[in-house]
Write a structure and sequence with these properties.
elongated, transmembrane, binds potassium ion, binds cytidine-5'-triphosphate, EC 2.7.7.67, binds magnesium ion, CDP-archaeol synthase
């Protein structure tokens, strides 16, 4: 797997533990909101769309996926002799950074949405598609600094920032069409 295919595969593989948490949170959501119903400046701090259960389930799903991807990676490398480094291997610190960071990025976006007068479920183009990527990369950088710097090369980052909004729009439209989500964003 050389050249462009390897680059795109490596970049998306590295971000998978950050892609899954939001979808897992949608499926697991409900229960007590993180902000406990509290308001700030007349509006909810975060809103009912950010719950403890959704956040915990999303984080666990992302970490579990990273562990599973490591197993698949080892299997594939043994079977087809994939060159080491094409697909990243996740240390647990990186897995947690990507998964929890994605959730925190999404929560930060809700905070900004409430401060700018947007009700729960309102769209905020740009922020909606990239909040979790920025959160994931930042927390991964904090918890697994060397791994993050070595894994997210400028070329892979470029792929991530171009491909993620496209993937995000597609998965959310699908989630909306199958009735898992109230809005197609
Ligand atoms: N969810 C959750 N906990 C989270 C993130 C999401 O429980 N940390 C669940 C909620 O049921 C939420 C649904 O997933 O309604 C969809 O997530 P999202 O689109 O991020 O939330 P919204 O309801 O649109 O709220 P907001 O406007 O604050 O983004
Ligand atoms: K969101
Ligand atoms: Mg939403």
């Amino acid at each position: 797997m050389a050249g462009l295919v390897g680059l795109v595969a490596g970049a998306l593989w590295a971000m998978l533990p950050a892609y899954v948490p939001n979808n897992a949170a949608v499926l697991a959501g409900g229960g007590a909101p993180i902000d406990g119903g509290r308001t700030w400046g007349g509006r909810r701090i975060l809103g009912d769309g950010k719950t403890w259960r959704g956040t915990a389930a999303g984080t666990l799903a992302g970490v579990a996926l990273a562990v599973a991807l490591n197993a698949v990676n080892a299997l594939v490398a043994d079977t087809v002799g994939l060159a080491a480094g094409v697909l990243p291997v996740f240390p647990l610190t990186a897995a947690l950074g990507l998964a929890l960071g994605a959730m925190l990025g999404d929560i930060g976006a809700s905070f900004l949405k409430r401060r700018t007068g947007r009700e729960r479920g309102a769209s905020f183009p740009g922020l909606d598609q990239l909040d979790f990527v920025v959160g994931a990369l930042l927390l991964s950088l904090v918890l697994a600094t060397d791994w993050t710097l070595a894994t997210f090369t400028p070329a892979r980052l470029a792929v991530v920032f171009v491909a993620t909004p496209v993937l995000h729009v597609v998965t959310n439209v699908i989630a909306y069409l199958i009735g898992a989500k109230n809005e197609p964003w």
